[in-house]
Specification:
- By secondary structure, the protein is an alpha/beta fold.
- The protein folds into two domains: about 240 residues, Queuine tRNA-ribosyltransferase-like (TIM Barrel, Alpha-Beta Barrel); about 100 residues, no CATH class.
- It is built from 15 helices and 17 strands.
- A five-stranded parallel sheet has the order 4-15-14-13-12.
- The protein starts with a strand and ends with a helix.
- One of its GO terms (molecular function) is tRNA-guanosine(34) queuine transglycosylase activity.
- Pathway: tRNA modification; tRNA-queuosine biosynthesis.
- Homodimer. Within each dimer, one monomer is responsible for RNA recognition and catalysis, while the other monomer binds to the replacement base PreQ1.
- InterPro entries: ArchSynthase1/Queuine_TRR, TGT, TGT-like_sf, tRNA_ribo_trans-like.
Amino acid sequence: MNFELQYNDTKSNARAGLITTDHGVIETPIFMPVGTQGTVKGVHMTELKEDVNAQIILGNTYHLYLRPGIHILEQAGGLHKFNSWDRPILTDSGGFQVFSLSDNRKLHEEGAEFRSHIDGSRHMFSPEKVMDIQRSIGADIIMAFDECCPGDANYEYARKSLELTERWLNRCFERFNSTDPKYGYSQCLFPIVQGCVYTDLRRRAAENIAQKGADGNAIGGLAVGEPTEKMYEMIEVVNEILPKDKPRYLMGVGTPVNILEAIERGVDMFDCIMPTRNGRNGQIFTRFGTLNMRNKKWENDFSPIDPDANSYVDTLYSRAYLHHLIKVNELLGLQIASIHNLAFYIWLVKEARKHIISGDFTTWKSGMVRQLSNRL
């Protein structure tokens, strides 16, 4: 993988660049749709490519390990062939999912023991096993195994958690460097900066990771319960230290406003389930604010869903029709909302890139944040 930093905004830390992988080029800033179980819920690969214009998607190690299972993915020739996606893929290590199983998991030096959320069966993730699983999945970018510390953790818990994550990271690199890709194309490993909301821990983690010389670096453990302003503060602390010539990935974030604020602070890559999850619940994101399509006010609004948007669903269907589909829980309504929201998120980061290059990002961003905060 190669990263070319092309433009730096003169009034902020916003950047525009290019990530080159064996499956294609990614323009940054970039939003990555989440395909947890090998699919972005309700969206065909053709729609992801041609309408949403996704350049890269995510898969999840925890979920793919449980279903369909690594033996199936290996027989298929990796996730790219299994799900017919020929562009880049990034896989999360499963650390966040194990974190979310707090009542059914146990952490220790060797790794994390947990019970499957599907059938209660017992499993063990070690750093080495997670690297092996991600080699078998075959993503272009794979993530280190870490503990995602709760946002409200006390300092002592956060410190011990970070120390464990750092020891696990060393083992991840050892395993990654001693194994080869399985499917004839290269993979790269991103470490993850943890440290909860404690400045000294975040600095320590970022300094340690900056010395690893990885192809890119991630910021994890944010948007997990801490105040939004604290999240922005931690991003600033970390990005002062992480190498400027490598992409920076903020994991699991967030709202459109969160993304613009993080871009201004020097983040290049984002993922979040919000566009599809909220879409399935009737929330539509637009450049002028959000719409709740369950509200009665839309039942006789026959105007396009979003006349200013780029997705085909936005002008093909009316707000009244989408309101009807959402109200009666028709699958088509969930699909339309998901496609629209994903296309909007990707439009947003493309616009950010355009304004970084043209030199007026901060002015554009300030106006956009005001608009995005509206409830229509």
